[in-house]
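RECORD TYPE: inverse folding
INPUT: structure tokens
STRUCTURE:
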């Protein structure tokens, strides 16, 4: 049976932990509002950019001089996965879900005979995936020292992707991240970046447009920007999802700590009462013996 001293120490320890989880929950809730606002504000622009790119690319996709950022290399042998995760933990299954989604994707591609390369954005993704796929890594990016993710950070990663594409180091590029739905729901998502997807519905109802300057000139400016915008949207979604998941995880941890404190306090009181009863019995027995 645990002693009263050990129970007191454990109760105080759990109370200290609860204070920490409460503080982390409040901090995550405060940061979530800003991150959620940024993520939701970036989506319409990114989605509209995709539709405009589809309209522009539809007329030049079949051309032999079409940009590689639009049509890729024409092959489907080497796949580059850009995996976006958080820089820190204590956020439930947020990072693990993306890691599992990536692991499933890698295994499926390799089962088809494809070659897979991985770039991670976020320290936790690199730690998780290196356990099994260290040989596939071609790049790691971490922005742990930055208070806020900026567009220039996304541009830094996309510049590396563009260099690899020009060097013929991959054929298809897919972005994997947690898409933010709400505070308690973040969905691991795979979004193909290269070749740029061009759904039929993106042609604005079949209407034809004339562009000035030419489609090729516009695409030369828009394609690199679109790549950075899609990654930037993923980074913002990832940040909002992280704070939402962390807030939920810290709330659950605080509740669990409260329940544990109640159980330990009850156990402490019962142990104390048993000790008092035993001491009284010993005193009474001693008095009767005299």
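DESIGNED SEQUENCE:
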């Amino acid at each position: 049976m645990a002693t009263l001293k050990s129970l007191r120490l454990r109760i105080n320890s759990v109370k200290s932990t609860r204070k920490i989880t409460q503080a982390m929950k409040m901090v995550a809730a405060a940061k979530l509002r800003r991150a959620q606002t940024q993520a939701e504000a970036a989506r319409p622009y990114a989605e509209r950019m995709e539709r405009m790119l589809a309209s522009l690319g539809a007329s030049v996709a079949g051309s032999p001089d079409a940009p590689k950022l639009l049509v890729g290399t024409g092959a489907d042998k080497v796949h580059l996965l850009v995996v976006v995760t958080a820089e820190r933990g204590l956020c439930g299954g947020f990072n693990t879900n993306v890691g599992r989604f990536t692991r499933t994707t890698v295994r499926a591609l390799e089962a088809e005979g494809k070659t897979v390369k991985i770039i991670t954005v976020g320290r936790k993704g690199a730690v998780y995936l290196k356990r099994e796929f260290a040989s596939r890594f071609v790049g790691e990016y971490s922005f742990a020292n930055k208070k806020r993710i900026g567009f220039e950070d996304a541009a830094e990663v996309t510049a590396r992707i563009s260099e690899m594409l020009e060097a013929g180091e991959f054929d298809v590029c897919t972005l994997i991240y947690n898409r933010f739905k709400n505070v308690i729901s973040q969905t691991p998502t795979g979004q193909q970046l290269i070749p740029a997807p061009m759904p039929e519905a993106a042609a604005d109802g079949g209407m034809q447009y004339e562009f000035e300057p030419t489609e090729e000139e516009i695409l030369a400016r828009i394609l690199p920007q679109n790549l950075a915008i899609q990654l930037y949207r993923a980074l913002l979604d990832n940040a909002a999802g992280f704070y939402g998941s962390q807030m939920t995880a810290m709330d659950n941890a605080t509740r669990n700590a409260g329940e544990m404190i109640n159980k330990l306090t009850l156990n402490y009181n019962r142990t104390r009462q048993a000790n008092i009863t035993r001491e009284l019995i010993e005193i009474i027995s001693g008095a009767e013996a005299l």
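NOTES: DSSP finds six helices and five strands in the chain.
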